[in-house]
């Protein structure tokens, strides 16, 4: 049950103090310019579609390549186009790059240290 003596009873966030539910909205006086937007579709080689929203810009100002939101591969504005950055080097995920920097033994040591710290703080 709500406390009947609560000081904020009948007020809305963003309204003037103590003006109640029918109060004047504080943002009503602010003048903000609305910017036209455009949604652009990008496709990676896996066929995933990513649709970021941009300010409505001229076509040359919109990026030709965008990172796929699902797999992280480069995505272009035309489906089925291979956008490999370097034809000799295949796409690598963040995990693959991390595995290149550490041996499995080093990775296990880092994991053990992190788990130990969490246990010491009683977070695990």
TrEMBL record:
Keyword Transcription: yes
Molecular functions (GO terms): bacterial-type RNA polymerase core enzyme binding; zinc ion binding
Binding site residues for Zn(2+): 44, 48, 68, 71
Signal peptide annotation: none
Cofactor note: Bind 1 Zn(2+) per subunit.
UniProt keyword Endoplasmic reticulum, yes or no: no
Pfam families membership: RbpA
InterPro entries for the chain: RbpA_sf (IPR038638), RNApol-bd_RbpA (IPR025182)
Keywords from the named record: Metal-binding, Transcription, Transcription regulation, Zinc
Domain of life where this protein originates: Bacteria
A biological-process GO annotation: positive regulation of DNA-templated transcription
Cofactor dependence: Zn(2+)
Similarity comment: Belongs to the RNA polymerase-binding protein RbpA family.
Function as written in the Swiss-Prot or TrEMBL entry: Binds to RNA polymerase (RNAP), stimulating transcription from principal, but not alternative sigma factor promoters.
Assembly with partners or alone: Forms a complex with the RNAP catalytic core and with free principal sigma factors.
Name of the protein this chain belongs to: RNA polymerase-binding protein RbpA
Record organism: Arthrobacter pigmenti
Taxonomic path: Bacteria, Bacillati, Actinomycetota, Actinomycetes, Micrococcales
